[in-house]
């Protein structure tokens, strides 16, 4: 026999009915709001991006292997993040699409390096090169910083691209070269088709050579990145937050040695530095850097070399790195200055237990906007 009176039973049924209706209505409202959000995100992404319709940003070059398309106004994607990118008439990442004259009335500094110098993953204004440019323009005696850096550059390309720019008639008063730890591996395994030395050019393959004659294939952008920018960024931030809490990225930087392996004495690199090997990569790096230094010396253009650490090197305590000693010794008698940023980054890491999350793009090797700002402040002491 039920303990509930008929009236209480009916009340509970009515309450349950309205509770169910309320839950269904709330679910419908949430679904409606989510659909609106995705619709607006899709429209916003298409109208502000349109990567499918934009021309390729990264293109091949027969002389210096690859670079950025000139006068580009569009978007690039890195690490799941899409960002606005402009290039000038020289194909340099810049504050806007603009014409850079071959001659300048102000002091002009050419910056060159790889993806760290390009400022991959962020707008020009958030990169250290962009910050140097803006700060140089604010001086009464202006300094014009031009950023010739592009992802995956190394000494072979530094030399060939600077030579190309000089032959084209571009005038600059000095060169600041940002030597990346990955350069030695790049010299050991690639860019043989553009090398002037026959013994290195002999390693040029048909595939590598063909890639120089046509536009480099454009990386296919992930559908979510291209069509749902806000949604993708929200998911990415949440994912990175979870990875940070779990410490996944910290464990990765303590175990991933691939591109910095040549700096670690006795580390087995396997076949990753073939065909030249570590010693061959170092020798070829030095040879092309000597060619660049001689080229600039003949034009009386001073050369400064900057070295900076990867997260792996900070995690491994590699302060007195082979990367540092190699280019410090090289600079003796050849460089206007040698700037070693290893000590300041190591000091910052010692003072901050969360240095990786604060200085680097989480889940990546590259500096974050904060890391770029830190690098800018240190470079400003030498270059501004």
Question: Would you mind describing this structure in some detail?
Answer:
It is a single chain. With 384 residues, the protein is of the alpha/beta class. The chain contains 16 helices and ten strands. The protein has helices spanning 6-48, 115-118, 128-138, 155-168, 183-189, 198-201, 206-211, 223-227, 229-246, 248-255, 277-298, 311-315, 322-331, 342-350, 355-359, 369-383; strands at 58-61, 65-68, 73-78, 81-87, 93-94, 107-112, 143-147, 174-179, 303-307, 337-340. The strands form three sheets. Strands 7-6-8-9-10 form a five-stranded parallel β-sheet. Strands 3-4-5 form a three-stranded antiparallel β-sheet. The chain has a two-stranded antiparallel ribbon with strand order 1-2. The longest helix has 43 residues, at 6-48.
- CATH architecture name of the largest domain: 3-Layer(aba) Sandwich
Rg measurement, Å: 26 Å
Number of DSSP helices?
A: 16
CATH homologous superfamily title of the largest domain: SGNH hydrolase
Which strands sit side by side, in order, in the main sheet? Answer: 7-6-8-9-10
Shape: elongated
Tell how many strands the DSSP assignment holds: 10
Largest sheet: 5 strands, parallel
Amino- and carboxy-terminal Cα gap: 91 Å
Regions with pLDDT < 50 over 5+ consecutive residues? 213-221
CATH topology of the largest domain: Rossmann fold
Portion in beta strands: 5-15%
What is the arithmetic mean of pLDDT? 85
Helix/strand class: alpha/beta
Overall tally of structural domains: 2
Helix content: 40-55%
- Spell the H/E element sequence: HEEEEEEHHEHEHHHHHHHEHHEHHH
Q: Which CATH C-level class of the largest domain is it?
A: Alpha Beta
């Amino acid at each position: 026999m039920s303990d509930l009176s008929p009236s209480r039973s009916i009340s509970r049924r009515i309450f349950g009915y309205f509770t169910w209706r309320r839950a269904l209505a709330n679910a419908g409202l949430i679904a409606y709001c989510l659909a609106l959000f995705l619709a607006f995100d899709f429209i916003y992404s298409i109208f502000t991006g349109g990567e499918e319709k934009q021309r390729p940003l990264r293109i091949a070059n027969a002389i210096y292997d690859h670079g950025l398309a000139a006068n580009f106004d569009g978007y690039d994607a890195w690490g799941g993040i899409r960002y606005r990118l402009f290039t000038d008439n020289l194909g340099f990442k810049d504050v806007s699409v603009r014409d850079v004259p071959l001659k300048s009335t102000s002091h002009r500094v050419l910056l060159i390096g790889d993806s760290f110098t390009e400022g991959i993953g962020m707008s020009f204004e958030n990169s250290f090169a962009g910050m140097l440019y803006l700060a140089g323009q604010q001086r009464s005696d202006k300094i014009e910083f031009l950023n010739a850096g592009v992802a995956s550059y190394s000494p072979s390309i530094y030399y060939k691209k600077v030579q190309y720019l000089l032959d084209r008639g571009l005038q600059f008063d000095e060169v600041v070269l940002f030597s990346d730890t990955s350069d030695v591996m790049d010299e050991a395994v690639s860019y043989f088709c553009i090398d002037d030395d026959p013994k290195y050019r002999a390693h040029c393959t048909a595939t590598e050579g063909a890639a120089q004659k046509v536009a480099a294939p454009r990386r296919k952008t992930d559908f979510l990145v291209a069509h749902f920018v806000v949604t993708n960024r929200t998911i990415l931030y949440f994912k990175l937050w979870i990875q940070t809490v779990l410490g996944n990225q910290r464990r990765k930087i303590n175990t991933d040695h691939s591109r910095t392996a040549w700096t670690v004495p006795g580390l087995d690199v396997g076949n990753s530095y073939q065909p030249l090997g570590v010693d061959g990569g170092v020798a070829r790096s030095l040879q092309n850097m000597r060619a660049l230094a001689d080229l600039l010396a003949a034009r009386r253009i001073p050369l400064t070399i900057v070295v900076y650490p990867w997260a792996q090197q900070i995690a491994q305590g590699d302060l007195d790195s082979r990367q540092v000693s190699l280019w410090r010794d090289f600079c003796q008698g050849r460089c206007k200055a040698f700037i070693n940023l290893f000590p300041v980054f190591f000091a910052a890491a010692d003072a901050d237990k969360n240095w990786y999350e604060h200085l680097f793009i989480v889940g990546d090797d590259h500096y974050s906007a904060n890391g770029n700002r830190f690098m800018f402040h240190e470079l400003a002491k030498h270059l501004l």
